[in-house]
Amino acid sequence: MENDKAIEAISDIRSMMERSSKFISLSGLTGVFAGIFALAGAAAAYFYSAKSFGTDAVYANLQPDQKKDVLIFYGVDAFLVLTLSVGFGIWLSFRKSKKTGQSVLDKTAIQLLVNLAIPLLTGGIFCIALISQGILGLVAPAMLIFYGLSLINASKFTIGDTRYLGYIEVFLGLTSCFFMGYGLLFWAVGFGFFHIAYGLFMYYIYEK
Amino acid sequence: MSALFVNDSLDFTRLKELLDVTDGNLASHIRALEEAGYVFVNKQYIGRKPNTSYTLTRLGRKAFQEHIQVLEKIIKNL
């Protein structure tokens, strides 16, 4: 059956091309969990703000020690969301790697991480700079924008169309620049809603 | 060939990892490809350790592309 052999050959070729150049153990569920953590974090931040000084308060008008408390809370909040998301991501990838046969320490995994890290670190430092200068309104937009750019940059080193999620995050980030005061909302939509939506999409297409 | 097609170059260890074959098996296949003029062998030292990496030649790239085209043609003429 020459036809079947040809199909198998092409499929083998394609599979080898992928596993030699991309990290194929990335799971869509990573996005789902990250989205859930992000929504939880956003909700926590919202209720904390509402309880502490009302949702209409402006950061600049707070007392210095109130400002410090807010920063600490938001900082720990964001840190937890990030750590849990990354932690679960690693664990899920490890689980999937049993099926793909590609080690999580594969060269492609490192390639992926490096390319993710460059815009992400840049964004992180940029946000710290913004906070240190008191320009808090642009922090949420900046996080979305840099995260989106890092996704676009890293997309060719993994499966799925993370590039498109990247475009969405950049778009959300840019849009939120024009709606000061709604940073948390955009953050929740970008890091929460779209991650869950995209994660589920990727999971059903590639893993089900 | 598939792996070399989408990577600038790959070294022996990486190829062995990807293909899951023995040293001897891999070495003889690479030799065949090299003799056909499809693969360029680059022997160098990383510090003190010898390291051999492989790249597809232009001829190899063309041959591989033609191979894929032939396969696709077979499939299309279902």
List keywords for this structure.
heterodimer, A: 208 residues, mainly alpha, 7 helices, 79% helix, elongated, B: 78 residues, alpha+beta, Arc Repressor Mutant, subunit A, three-stranded antiparallel sheet, 4 helices
Tell me briefly what this model is.
The complex is a heterodimer of chains A (208) and B (78). With 208 residues, chain A is mostly helical.
Q: What can you tell me about this protein's structure?
A:
The complex is a heterodimer of chains A (208) and B (78). Chain A is mostly helical. Chain A contains seven helices and no strands. Chain A has helices at 2-21, 28-53, 64-100, 107-132, 139-154, 162-176, 183-206. The model of chain A has no long low-confidence stretch (mean pLDDT 90). By secondary structure, chain B is of the alpha+beta class. Chain B has a single domain (2-76), classed as Winged helix-like DNA-binding domain superfamily/Winged helix DNA-binding domain (Arc Repressor Mutant, subunit A, Orthogonal Bundle), CATH 1.10.10. Helices cover 56% and strands 23% of the residues of chain B. Chain B starts with a helix and ends with a helix. The interface between A and B is medium-sized, with 15 and 14 residues.
How does the SSE layout of this entry go?
The complex is a heterodimer of chains A (208) and B (78).
Chain A (H helix, E strand, L loop, with lengths): L1 H20 L6 H26 L10 H37 L6 H26 L6 H16 L7 H15 L6 H24 L2
Helix pairs in contact in A: 2-3, 2-7, 4-5, 5-6, 5-7, 6-7
Chain B lengths: L1 H4 L4 E2 H8 L3 H13 L3 E8 L2 E8 L1 H19 L2
Antiparallel strand pairs in B: 1-3, 2-3
